[in-house]
Task: structure prediction
Amino acid sequence: MKTRITELFGIEHPIIQGGMHFVGFAEMAAAVSNAGGLGIVTGLTQPTPADLANEITRCREMTDKPFGVNLTFLPALKAPDYPGYVKAIIDGGIKSVETAGNNPAQVLPPLKEAGVKVIHKCTSVRHALKAQSIGCDAVSVDGFECGGHPGEDDIPNMILLPRAADELDIPFVASGGMADARSLVASLAMGAEGMNMATRFIATKEAPVHENVKQAILAASERDTRLIMRPFRNTERVLNNAAVESILEKEKQLGDAIKFEDIIDEVGGVYPRIMQKGEMDIGAWSCGMVAGLVYDIPTVQELVDRIMAEAEQIIRGRLEGFLAA
Ligand SMILES: Cc1cc2nc3c(=O)[nH]c(=O)nc-3n(C[C@H](O)[C@H](O)[C@H](O)COP(=O)(O)O)c2cc1C
Result:
């Protein structure tokens, strides 16, 4: 399939794997890129720019296809060394970067100078327009369904995607709630030129996470995610578990008086124990409603091939069939 997104990133299929903390290691990114999509190494999962440089080298040993790096700007007590990470990206020969969180203006000049294509992930049309105006090459439009941080506007993709199509000139991919060929074809119909998946890619054979994480996604229904940290205007969609129930209880009890320290045990630094040791109840971890559409744990290649084959069937069979009738 050819769209402005496949052309921009030099990939075969319009499918991107979104940055994922403690999932987006070289193994994940390489598997997606080898399957013809755009794999993304998650920059800040690497503790230092030197570690990111090593991870880029490792990924390059696993694939000769293009892959990208995610750079996330979220509230942090101590800001990461962004110039250092940008240097590791450029020196590592990376040509695609997914930015997310805040406005990426601070990293655009060196990235653009080095010929890196930047796709900014945002949860509203106004932020997408801002990204376009400061020179981003594409945007990833993340609907309310998404795992991770859906923002504070709560606009689902049935509205957000056509709204983005009405306003944007640069190409965009649909993100949040994307699982299969139906997601891809629907996104294309609403004006997107590809899709970004995160939660769905965790439930694959190659995802470098503990088996418990994959089984938790497989077992979850579309009703099993919760929104935490609303009082901090830093909302995160996570899979429900004992820690999440404890956070929500504290948010209810403490109301406006709640402070970040009240929930730090359940959200601070919990990812390695969840993703690598499989301790599923010790903290909150991002997961999309799309878990309800995950029925198996295929290889990434099987997943991507299935999506592309079924998308063709939907377009040529189901949709054209309606017109012929
Ligand atoms: C476990 C997990 C960790 C994530 N970590 C990040 C991250 O570090 N940076 C980022 O920009 N997005 C992160 N995301 C968000 C995804 O890149 C993507 O935007 C979102 O999950 C899409 O929704 P979906 O899960 O329904 O596919 C994460 C998502 C998940 C599920």
